[in-house]
Amino acid sequence: MPRQIKIVENILSANDRLAEENRARLDAAGVFAINLMASPGAGKTSLIEQTLARLDGRLRVAVVEGDIATSLDADRAAAAGAQAAIQINTGGECHLDAVMLRSALEQLDLSQFDLLIVENVGNLVCPASFKLGAHASVLVASTPEGDDKPYKYPGMYRGVDVLVINKIDLLPYLNFRMDYFRRGVEALNPGVLTFPLSCRTGEGLSAWVDWLIHQARAT
Amino acid sequence: MPRQIKIVENILSANDRLAEENRARLDAAGVFAINLMASPGAGKTSLIEQTLARLDGRLRVAVVEGDIATSLDADRAAAAGAQAAIQINTGGECHLDAVMLRSALEQLDLSQFDLLIVENVGNLVCPASFKLGAHASVLVASTPEGDDKPYKYPGMYRGVDVLVINKIDLLPYLNFRMDYFRRGVEALNPGVLTFPLSCRTGEGLSAWVDWLIHQARAT
Do B154 and A68 touch (CB under 8 A)? Predict the structure, then answer.
């Protein structure tokens, strides 16, 4: 069905142009932006909460939360200390796109922030195809999901700049072969920056937070 | 953009017609079919493995595995004792559809089977919109995903016939409020048949397997 494929291509290239505009707007304001992606329940919102707690005001943070429904995540981000938290309900769409992020950016005075965290819809497939304009794509993997995920969701693992491996505190209770997982990651995305951590125990979080601070100060 | 919306509607209604044809074909052969859906890593393939082990030949089972890439899951199902295991690689699509299932059914002599297990792509959004023709839609939830998932993925939780709550062995290590989770489920899908279980320890699996046997014998 070539007509449908053509439409999808047009949508994607229009999206990419808007993503570039979003990036230019962020750069002009000196805001470092990350696009957090993961399966449902891998711990994106928990990572945002723990990041805000550990930043403890060292960066001024805005959070944009993408969800199909509810404002639960924006409520959590605001409660955790985000200076601004905007909820985008996609109304059924399985991913955020650059238009949605642009609408959110228009509600923010970007000069007031150092770091923008965009939490995408929980999905290991669709968000990989839609650039938003963020400086870094961050995939939050989760140990209970299993060690075969890089092999099964190559599009997502191939395209990200940073990999967070969350819930490492559960490793003793799981059959998760870290070697097998890392070999799959390495084949798709050699040398990708990786942060193993646990939002529940706090282990590994400081390296992640230090990286964010360094990136935000360099932007 | 009404033209795009119209196209999506047409695709969905064409899909529904094919799903009805798939159902008729399954009914004619007396095969009970389930459509297993879940987030990546919730345990769909593990549930299939454990189900096959516990059925121990009491039903003749065919498995159709939907994945974006690899045949890892079909290999696991075949190793676990499925009489037939067919892999569908969607080539990037975030869900199975009725056309894909029809292609798989054409490769099977349905008279040789009692139960067909279709494992959808790991995704809590997209598969909800595409009927396949199965008799029961089964959602596999997983405790490490968190207790807020019914609230955040209402389309999926609303549309299923059966809910499996997997990884209950991890509950002591998680902040999972079962009451909150179940209230969310109940609001969307009152009285939905629910099987709490652990594929790792085997707890709760026999009730699930008994239900499958009962359904397959009634078809």
Answer: yes
Q: Cβ atoms within 10 A of the Cβ of A196, count?
A: 19
**B218–chain A nearest CA distance, Å:** 34
Q: Which residues contact B58 (CB under 8 A, 6 or more apart)?
A: B213
Find the residue in A nearest to B93 (Cα): A125
Burial of A180 (0-12, 13-18, 19+ CB in 10 A): middle
To which residue do tokens 């078809």 refer? B219
All residues of chain B having their beta carbon less than 8 Å from the beta carbon of residue A181 are: none
- Tell me if B175 and A200 make a contact (CB, 8 A cut-off): yes
Q: What's the sign of the alpha-carbon dihedral A193, A198, A203, A206?
A: positive
| Tokens coding B153 | 């993925």
Q: Which of B68, B152, B173 sits opposite A68 (nearest CB)?
A: B152
Compute the nearest-CA separation of B63 from chain A (Å). 18
Task: Retrieve residue B185's tokens.
Answer: 């489920």
Q: Encode pLDDT of B72-100 as tens digits.
A: 999 999 999 999 999 999 888 899 999 99
CA distance A178 to chain B (A): 15
Amino acid at site B184: G
A97, A77 contact by CB (below 8 A): no
**Contact flag B170-A144 (C-beta cutoff 8 Å):** yes
* Phi/psi at B80 (5° precision): -85, -5
Interface size A-B, in CB pairs within 8 Å, comes to 110
- All structural domains of chain A, each given as residue ranges with its CATH number in brackets, are 2-218 (3.40.50.300)
- Tens-of-pLDDT digits for all 219 residues of chain A? 445 555 566 667 888 999 999 999 999 999 999 999 999 999 999 999 999 999 999 999 999 999 998 889 999 999 999 999 999 998 888 999 999 999 999 999 999 999 999 999 999 999 999 999 999 999 999 999 999 999 999 999 999 999 999 999 999 999 999 999 999 999 999 999 999 999 999 999 999 999 999 999 999
Element (H, E) at B33: strand B32-37
Which phi and psi (to 5°) does residue B115 adopt? Answer: -135, 135
